[in-house]
Amino acid sequence: MRLTLAGVSHHRAPIELRERVALELDACRALAARLGGEAVVLSTCNRTELYLAREEHAEEEAVRTLAELADDRGAELAAALYRLRDEGAALHLFRVAAGLDSLVPGEGEILGQVRTAFEAGSPGPFLDRLFRQALHAGRRVRLETAIGESPASVPSAAAALAQQVFEDLRGSRVLLLGAGKMSEATARNLVSRGAEIAVVANRTLEHGEELARRLGARALPLDAVADELAEADVVVSATGSSDHVLSSGAVAAALRTRRGRPMLLLDLAVPRDLDPAINALDGCFLYDVDDLQAVVAETISGRRDEAARAERLVEEEAGRFRDWHASLDVVPTIASLRALVEEIRDSELAKAGGRLSERERRHVESITSQILAKLLHLPTIRMKEAAAAADGVVYADVVRHLFGLGEEERRR
Amino acid sequence: MAELLVFPALLAYGEAAFAYAGELRGPGLAGRLATWGVRLGWLAQTALLVGQAVSAEGFPWGTWAGSLNLFVWLVVGAYLIWGCTPRYRLLGLAVMPLAAVLLALAWAGGGTAVVESERSGAVLAVHVALMLAGFAGLTLAAGMAALYLWQERRLKRHERGVLTVRVPALGTLDRLSARTVIGSLVLLTLGIGFGAASFERGDFDAAMAVTIGIYAVYAALLVLRHEGWRGRRAALLNLAGFALVAVVLPITHFA
């Protein structure tokens, strides 16, 4: 069985091409079924890949399918297309599942996308084994390395900092100043970790109300936030104001009523919205956009260090799959050999059957079964080892010749 | 023979202390080595204490060095509850060097020897065990307070690696430290109660005065915390209380 992969990804394909070949889950399911045999279609915003397991013509079909999806712009697709086979294709999938081929190394979403693609695909025994092992490799990388622990964007760094102060964000109240994209992205990151967006304050109340409705919060005009400050654990500010929106004095006054509970203030605006002197207040942590970008740069660098460890884990898992794949060459021979000896055993037992009592027959059956199992154990192991070392076919031929396996069928 | 177990315990605690320093650069092998150092060292020390208890007729940890030995075991035992989880590993950076040094001191003072000791009363044994367990808890709480101040400083200074070194959240450290102090005060209350049972007029000494002072400082910490003294101020008060435990109490008790 040959494994074939053809695909395009963010490495070489521009977004226009990726958009054309991107498929919804139902379309992935339908395409996998249409391709026939063993097929899985993985399609995310960064990649579309076809995995086919069959003996012949897989590559041509995969490329033709992608060309159809890409509206047949041959030159553009050819420049972005990659094709891999067998070990190379398996290793690629393992790296994808581990997040090592992602735009941000170690991002965790891809593991779920691989699982979904697998479940929506049409895998047989071969792709089933391949995808299960790839998912296992992805899980190992996430468990045994710290590659996915650190944030890779300013909004996620802001949310991670909030967790570093409060740990459990459930019950934490967030005050949003500004209703722009940055405010919303940060708010959604905080909400995904359990925080509650309490208030959205914006200079233009209508815009604030729109975002507040989406986030399940209240909307206020920007000049009314002082009263809300004491109740806010996290303040996210990203207004277009040219002056400070919050002064150090206002925050100090709010802190006095918080009975020692800390506050995290995230200033994502340029020019800055929050008075830098706020950071000097006891129990207050103020981060501006430069601070957050520095944190992100550091964590991405950390991810790259961890990526080296992750690559080793992935190669280990790919090696296991390679051994299993190689052992497929000798499995039919092993099965034939076992069938032959079982046949001989059954025939000899049948001859002796009349001379033995029921108890004796069971005893002889048990003994002969154990003898055969022990006798075949080492040759089976050695053949699988030889298969992993690429000598499997030679060994299989020798065994078939020595035991005359398949000769009976050929004579027939 | 059992007294030789102090050496593997010392070695393992020392290894853990060094390995925790390695964990600062990022999670990985160093952290796992540190955790195993703590586990193996604690098992070796447990075996040592069992050996001492079996050989002794009475309470074998009545001397300052013996108390120190038992104290270290309690501290490390309490730390093991959290220390095995990756997020709390760095607490070991505050606890394990101290544990290794104190165990070495206990060994130098003869507190890890296996000798027959005189018979002593059960009340005294319970009193000492409860007091030491209480002080072990306060040591752990001080470790958390130190970790709080370190992490708070990193957050205030916007250090780049603030998210790459795994440390418990400030809120967690503050809460756990307070809970540990509450637990320790319960143990100290029981310990003082058992001590009072064998108290005779004229027994009152400087160590008892300092112990009551320590009790008062930590009780004040809890009251003030309730009034809003959390975070940095609570951590500083916690460390001030621990200075009494670590410096003043041994001097007055064993001088």
Q: Could you walk me through the main structural features you see in this protein, from its secondary elements to its overall organization?
A:
The complex is a heterodimer of chains A (412) and B (255). In chain A, helix 7 packs antiparallel against helix 13 and helix 8 (154-166) packs across helix 9. Chain A is an alpha/beta fold and 412 residues long. The relative contact order of chain A is 0.08. In chain A, 58% of the residues lie in helices and 14% in strands. The model of chain B has no long low-confidence stretch (mean pLDDT 84). Chain B has two domains: 1-118; 121-255. Chain B has eight helices and no strands. Chain B has 255 residues and is mainly α. The A-B interface holds A 146, 149-151, 157, 160-161, 163-168, 258-262, 279, 282-283, 285, 287, 291, 294-295, 297-299, 302, 305-306, 309 and B 26-28, 151, 155-156, 158, 160-164, 166-172, 225, 227-234.
Largest interface comes to: A-B, 33 and 28 residues
User: How far apart lie the N and C ends of chain B?
Assistant: 31 Å
Overall CATH architecture of the largest domain in chain A: 2-Layer Sandwich
Radius of gyration based on Cα positions of chain B? 19 Å
Based on secondary structure, the structural category of chain A is alpha/beta
Percent of residues in helices of chain A:
55-70%
Main sheet attributes: strand count, strand direction, barrel closure of chain B: none
Indicate the low-confidence ranges of chain B by residue numbers.
none
Order of helices and strands of chain B: HHHHHHHH
